[in-house]
Amino acid sequence: MRIAYDLSFEDMDLVCSTAQTLLRVICNGGHAAVLGTDPSKIGIDLSKEVSVWNGVAVSPLEVAYTEDCMKPKFCEADEALDQEVVKA
Protein backbone atom coordinates (compact mmCIF):
# COMPACT_ATOMS: atom_id res chain seq x y z
CA MET A 1 0.00 0.00 0.00
CA ARG A 2 1.35 3.39 -0.94
CA ILE A 3 1.52 6.01 1.79
CA ALA A 4 0.41 8.80 -0.57
CA TYR A 5 -3.13 7.41 -0.72
CA ASP A 6 -3.68 8.24 2.95
CA LEU A 7 -2.04 11.67 3.00
CA SER A 8 -3.50 14.99 1.97
CA PHE A 9 -1.49 17.32 -0.26
CA GLU A 10 -0.69 19.45 2.80
CA ASP A 11 0.62 16.39 4.66
CA MET A 12 2.75 15.30 1.69
CA ASP A 13 4.21 18.79 1.51
CA LEU A 14 5.02 18.69 5.24
CA VAL A 15 6.71 15.27 4.93
CA CYS A 16 8.84 16.42 1.98
CA SER A 17 9.87 19.76 3.48
CA THR A 18 10.72 18.17 6.84
CA ALA A 19 12.80 15.45 5.16
CA GLN A 20 14.67 18.03 3.08
CA THR A 21 15.38 20.19 6.12
CA LEU A 22 16.65 17.22 8.16
CA LEU A 23 18.80 16.08 5.24
CA ARG A 24 20.37 19.54 5.03
CA VAL A 25 21.11 19.37 8.79
CA ILE A 26 22.71 15.92 8.39
CA CYS A 27 24.80 17.03 5.40
CA ASN A 28 26.20 19.96 7.37
CA GLY A 29 27.29 17.94 10.40
CA GLY A 30 24.14 17.75 12.51
CA HIS A 31 23.63 13.99 12.35
CA ALA A 32 23.92 13.62 16.14
CA ALA A 33 21.13 16.16 16.67
CA VAL A 34 18.86 14.41 14.15
CA LEU A 35 19.47 11.07 15.85
CA GLY A 36 18.87 12.62 19.30
CA THR A 37 22.33 11.95 20.68
CA ASP A 38 23.42 15.61 20.91
CA PRO A 39 22.50 16.74 24.45
CA SER A 40 22.64 20.43 23.50
CA LYS A 41 19.91 20.00 20.89
CA ILE A 42 17.45 17.82 22.83
CA GLY A 43 13.99 19.35 22.78
CA ILE A 44 14.68 21.57 19.76
CA ASP A 45 12.52 20.96 16.70
CA LEU A 46 15.07 21.11 13.89
CA SER A 47 12.32 21.06 11.28
CA LYS A 48 10.81 24.32 12.57
CA GLU A 49 13.72 26.39 13.88
CA VAL A 50 16.78 27.89 12.20
CA SER A 51 19.97 26.13 13.27
CA VAL A 52 23.65 26.70 12.45
CA TRP A 53 25.95 23.76 11.58
CA ASN A 54 29.64 24.33 10.81
CA GLY A 55 28.92 27.93 9.90
CA VAL A 56 25.96 27.06 7.64
CA ALA A 57 22.53 28.33 8.67
CA VAL A 58 19.83 25.75 7.93
CA SER A 59 16.35 27.23 7.92
CA PRO A 60 13.13 25.24 7.57
CA LEU A 61 11.52 25.26 4.17
CA GLU A 62 8.34 27.20 3.50
CA VAL A 63 5.10 25.58 2.47
CA ALA A 64 5.10 24.75 -1.24
CA TYR A 65 1.52 23.51 -1.59
CA THR A 66 -1.46 25.83 -1.41
CA GLU A 67 -5.04 25.31 -2.53
CA ASP A 68 -4.56 27.98 -5.21
CA CYS A 69 -1.78 26.05 -6.94
CA MET A 70 -4.29 23.37 -8.02
CA LYS A 71 -6.51 25.87 -9.83
CA PRO A 72 -6.08 26.22 -13.60
CA LYS A 73 -3.97 29.20 -14.61
CA PHE A 74 -6.16 30.00 -17.60
CA CYS A 75 -9.89 29.80 -18.10
CA GLU A 76 -11.36 27.56 -20.82
CA ALA A 77 -12.16 30.58 -23.02
CA ASP A 78 -8.48 31.55 -23.08
CA GLU A 79 -7.49 28.00 -24.02
CA ALA A 80 -10.05 27.93 -26.84
CA LEU A 81 -8.70 31.26 -28.14
CA ASP A 82 -5.14 29.90 -28.05
CA GLN A 83 -6.20 26.83 -30.03
CA GLU A 84 -7.89 29.02 -32.67
CA VAL A 85 -4.72 31.11 -33.06
CA VAL A 86 -2.65 27.94 -33.54
CA LYS A 87 -5.05 26.65 -36.23
CA ALA A 88 -4.91 29.92 -38.17
TrEMBL record:
Keyword line: DNA-binding
Q: Name one GO biological process term.
A: positive regulation of DNA-templated transcription
Q: Which residues form the DZF domain?
A: 1-79
A single GO cellular-component term on record = catalytic step 2 spliceosome
Query: Where does the source fall among the domains of life?
Result: Eukaryota
| Coiled-coil zones | none
Q: Which GO terms describe its molecular function?
A: DNA binding; double-stranded RNA binding
Task: Supply the InterPro entries for this chain.
Answer: DZF_dom, DZF_dom_C, ILF2
Against PANTHER family, the record matches this protein to:
INTERLEUKIN ENHANCER-BINDING FACTOR (PTHR46447), INTERLEUKIN ENHANCER-BINDING FACTOR 2 (PTHR46447:SF1)
Protein name per Swiss-Prot or TrEMBL:
DZF domain-containing protein
Q: Which organism is it from?
A: Strongylus vulgaris (Blood worm)
